[in-house]
């Protein structure tokens, strides 16, 4: 009997399980030490070996290296290479152990995909460069599809591709094919444009290629085309270029209308946010902003922004307010805002309701509109009083705000105070339960 019991225990140890019981008397399973990651102490799902010969789980050791450590955690030896090597032998043993112990509820770990290496990425990017020089559009397109596929496999692959300069190589390829016949190269250009949206943020070199005359005209064409994915990808890339190229974009025929359409007929929140960012950069440019604002106002952007602000999430609300604030720098923009019945109720509502930035932008717009009120009866100021602006501003002073905002609040209160006798203001008790939501 004793020999039989000893044999069972020895067999259990060989299978990697030492029968034991927990506090409730239930059988417990012990993971063999060689199958545990020395960092997380958990069962390894993707064992990899470092140059020091120690095996770790890939996720744990990559976090260690990304944190700026260049030594082996267990031996403290300096790593000769930061590229861990898959340990197929250990992984196969772990999978066999999982199968043998499935009665304990252990699921077999799937065979992990081998992540792309820097050498592989550089080889693909080199082939893309060669294809561009040969003007081989189809060959380049196939390589770009491969880059996209690898990047979408895992976040680790994406980082490796981005860190090896894919953004610059793809941007240079986009510039190169945009110079040639557009009809012939539209397929490869569309594929590159799609891949670029995965490579954000783009570096200065990549922005330089995309900011060339031919590339900008190509981006504008995609922005205006009927295909939804093309328009989305184009506006995302244009947002990456920043304010430096906005003057050039604003001069291109159809660009303003295309951006306006992306807000009026939204494709997705990402595209709408990007469109508002691009428009903001355009109207805050120092050279052509007055003429540009007039074009947007004539398209109906003021009413569109106010309708967007009625019910929008924080990010979209802040961007829409930013654009409206820029529009109100012009007389035409302010007049259009004053004539819109939504302006005052929406702006007052956004104060203290969304975020600090939304509050500051709402106040800035109110300040511009009220300060430029020209009617003798104080029409816009009276309307502000009717929707409770005076009490809201007083509350803002009590809760505290930055000096610049405080100056505008004080000035607004003085302007509103001149007309308080004309309307019955909102009862201050209406705001007694109001608290900052941010």
Automatic annotation (TrEMBL):
Pfam families: ARM_PUB (PF25598), U-box (PF04564)
InterPro entries, per database record: ARM-like, ARM-type_fold, ARM_PUB, PUB22/23/24-like, RING-Ubox_PUB, Ubox_domain, Znf_RING/FYVE/PHD
Residues covered by region (Disordered): 1-27
Enzyme class: transferase
Catalytic activity: S-ubiquitinyl-[E2 ubiquitin-conjugating enzyme]-L-cysteine + [acceptor protein]-L-lysine = [E2 ubiquitin-conjugating enzyme]-L-cysteine + N(6)-ubiquitinyl-[acceptor protein]-L-lysine
Keywords: Transferase, Ubl conjugation pathway
EC number: 2.3.2.27
Any one of the GO BP annotations: protein ubiquitination
UniProt function note: Functions as an E3 ubiquitin ligase.
Designated name of the protein: U-box domain-containing protein
Organism: Theobroma cacao (Cacao)
């Amino acid at each position: 009997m004793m020999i039989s019991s000893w044999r069972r225990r020895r067999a259990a140890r060989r299978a990697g399980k030492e029968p034991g019981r927990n506090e409730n008397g239930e059988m417990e399973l012990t993971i063999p030490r060689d199958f545990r990651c020395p960092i997380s102490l958990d069962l390894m799902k993707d064992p990899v070996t470092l140059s020091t010969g120690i095996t770790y789980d890939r996720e744990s050791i990559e976090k260690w290296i990304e944190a700026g450590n260049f030594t082996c955690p267990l031996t403290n030896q300096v790593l000769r290479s930061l590229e861990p090597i898959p340990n197929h032998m250990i992984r196969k043993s772990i999978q066999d152990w999982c199968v043998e112990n499935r009665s304990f509820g252990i699921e077999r770990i799937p065979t992990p995909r081998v992540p792309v290496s820097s050498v592989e990425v550089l080889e693909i990017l080199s082939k893309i460069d060669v294809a561009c020089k040969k003007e081989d559009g189809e060959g380049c397109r196939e390589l770009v599809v491969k880059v996209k596929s690898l990047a979408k496999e895992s976040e680790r692959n994406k980082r490796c591709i981005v860190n090896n300069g894919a953004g610059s190589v793809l941007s240079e390829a986009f510039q190169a094919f945009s110079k040639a016949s557009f009809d012939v190269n539209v397929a490869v250009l569309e594929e590159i444009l799609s891949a670029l949206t995965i490579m954000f943020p783009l570096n200065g070199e990549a922005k330089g290629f995309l900011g060339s005359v031919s590339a900008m005209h190509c981006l504008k064409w995609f922005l205006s085309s009927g295909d939804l994915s093309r328009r989305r990808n184009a506006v995302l890339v244009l947002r990456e270029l920043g304010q430096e190229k906005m003057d050039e974009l604003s001069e291109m025929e159809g660009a303003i209308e295309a951006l306006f359409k992306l807000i009026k007929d939204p494709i997705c929140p990402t595209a709408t946010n990007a469109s508002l960012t691009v428009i903001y950069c355009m109207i805050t440019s120092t050279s052509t902003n007055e003429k540009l604002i007039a074009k947007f106002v004539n398209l109906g952007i003021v009413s569109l922004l106010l309708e967007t602000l009625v019910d929008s999430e924080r990010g979209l609300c802040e961007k829409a307010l930013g654009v409206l604030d820029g529009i109100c720098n012009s007389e035409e923009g302010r007049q259009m805002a004053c004539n819109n019945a939504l302006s005052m109720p929406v702006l007052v509502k956004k104060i203290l309701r969304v975020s600090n930035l939304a509050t500051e932008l709402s106040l800035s717009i109110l300040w511009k509109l009220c300060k430029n009120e020209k009617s003798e009866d104080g029409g816009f100021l009276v309307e502000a009083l009717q929707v409770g602006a005076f009490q809201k501003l007083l509350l803002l002073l009590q809760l505290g705000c930055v000096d610049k905002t405080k100056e505008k609040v004080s000035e607004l209160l003085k302007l509103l105070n001149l007309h308080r006798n004309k309307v019955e203001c909102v009862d201050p008790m209406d705001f007694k339960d109001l608290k900052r939501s941010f």
